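hey
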């Protein structure tokens, strides 16, 4: 079998439902991704393992849960000798390259890609034409060397700062690598405010800016997919797209809600996946990416990885034990520790917030923009918004949601007697997973009603990972 070329595309902070093919309520956000979805397979229940940039990508690159790889935060892997996806592909004869998010996608400082370009080379990570130029050079080099290629294409869109609220200097004519203007700029009256946010004027403005950045990210993806067709490489190239986490707004990125970890996962593989396919019955995770791609390339999997190949799903088969995903969170970019564990099936989600003690406040990058400031201001005269803001800041130790009917996590059912049976099932499922995977939070989970035990765990996490709590 001729090994397939592999194009792995990630978007930075693209919410799952920002993509048209995943039922985005607003038209025109992602025409190129919608086309990709029509040509391949869409996964309705795909989740990243941890909803923040570098740790999420480390999980993809290693097939390991963060507490197993030592990739819990914004640092290189703390545990040596772990096999990496591009390393395994290179050893099998692939040429490996990366465009964008270089540091966040390179788990060890010592690893060197065959070709690499980062944010400053790529129009601040936001210029489709420049991405296509460097992608073309990489593809030509692989063809010259007669090697299959693995190209990891990482758009910096739609990460903050969003288009319309980003530096004017990015677009100046004397910038050797300027950012580009999106092919469509959204106005406030063209967008729908996500249901986990409040529909306030400043929120609406920021969401419009976000969707303009989503469109520019899609422009970049489209430019490289066009290049793939024009170079005649499309037929033997497996294309994967996903986002590394949800949008950088409250109740999404750096948490374990549905809008934190659910990702718009697409795969196109001509001759293997029928166009317009859809996987609605199986759950997949970010740690499954590495074993699946190695499996597709016919490369033996390294031992002791947590992820499992779902290659058979691409051919329409069914797989057992695909009814649950387990996600986690550890530390923000600001080095604040907020340990969270979560188990989800296709309907329900249960979270254990080890950090919540009623007074400790959550702080992340999502609070730096227009949205959180607008919500705080509105809370002065609106008690419902005040309660929502307070809950975001302090949470409670346990959260439990019917995500099928409440995808925006507005109604915590943890104390609702009608749901106690399913709540107990998810608690047991999480404890079983934590036991099997030697999760350092296991004792804290078992003592979740003891504030002193949770405090002791927080102190142990600060010693282990550094940072604040």
């Amino acid at each position: 079998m001729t090994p397939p070329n592999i194009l792995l595309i990630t978007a930075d902070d693209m919410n799952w439902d920002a993509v048209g093919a995943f039922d985005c309520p607003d038209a025109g956000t992602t025409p190129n991704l919608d086309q990709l979805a029509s040509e391949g397979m869409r996964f309705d229940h795909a989740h990243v393992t941890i909803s923040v940039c570098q740790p999420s990508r480390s999980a993809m690159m290693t097939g390991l849960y963060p507490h197993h790889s030592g990739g819990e935060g914004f640092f290189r892997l703390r545990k040596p000798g772990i096999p990496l996806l591009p390393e395994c592909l290179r050893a099998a004869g692939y040429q490996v390259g990366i465009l964008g998010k270089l540091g966040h996608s390179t788990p060890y400082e010592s690893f060197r890609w065959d070709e690499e370009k980062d944010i400053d080379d790529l129009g601040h990570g936001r210029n489709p034409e420049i991405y296509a130029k460097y992608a073309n050079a990489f593809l030509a080099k692989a063809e010259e060397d007669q090697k299959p290629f693995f190209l990891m294409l990482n758009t910096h869109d739609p990460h903050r700062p969003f288009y319309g609220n980003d530096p004017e200097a990015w677009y100046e004519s004397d910038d050797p690598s300027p950012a580009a203007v999106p092919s469509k700029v959204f106005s406030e009256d063209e967008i729908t405010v996500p249901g986990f946010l409040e529909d306030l004027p400043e929120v609406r403005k920021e969401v419009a800016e976000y969707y303009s950045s989503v469109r520019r990210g899609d422009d970049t993806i489209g430019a490289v997919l066009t290049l793939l067709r024009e170079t005649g490489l499309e037929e033997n190239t497996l294309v994967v797209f996903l986002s590394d986490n949800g949008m950088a707004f409250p109740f999404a990125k750096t948490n374990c809600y549905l809008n934190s970890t659910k990702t718009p996962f697409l795969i196109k593989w001509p001759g293997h996946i029928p166009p317009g396919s859809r996987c609605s019955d199986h759950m997949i995770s970010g740690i499954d990416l590495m074993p699946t791609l190695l499996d597709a390339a016919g490369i033996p999997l390294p031992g002791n990885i947590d992820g499992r190949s779902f290659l058979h799903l691409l051919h329409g088969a069914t797989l057992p034990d695909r009814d649950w995903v387990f996600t986690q969170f550890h530390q923000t970019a600001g080095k604040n520790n907020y340990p969270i564990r979560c188990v989800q099936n296709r309907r329900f989600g249960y979270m254990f917030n080890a950090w919540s003690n009623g007074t400790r406040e959550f702080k992340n990058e999502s609070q730096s923009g227009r949205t959180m400031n607008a919500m705080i201001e509105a809370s002065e005269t609106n008690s419902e918004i005040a309660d929502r803001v307070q809950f975001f800041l302090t949470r409670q130790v346990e959260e439990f949601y019917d995500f099928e009917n409440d995808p925006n996590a507005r109604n915590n059912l943890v104390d609702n007697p009608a749901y106690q049976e399913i709540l107990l099932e998810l608690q047991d499922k999480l404890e079983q997973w934590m036991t099997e995977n030697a999760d350092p939070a296991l004792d804290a989970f078992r003592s979740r009603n003891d504030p002193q035990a949770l405090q002791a765990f927080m102190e142990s996490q600060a010693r282990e990972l550094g940072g604040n709590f």
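The first helix runs from residue 31 to 39. The first strand starts at residue 5 and ends at 11.
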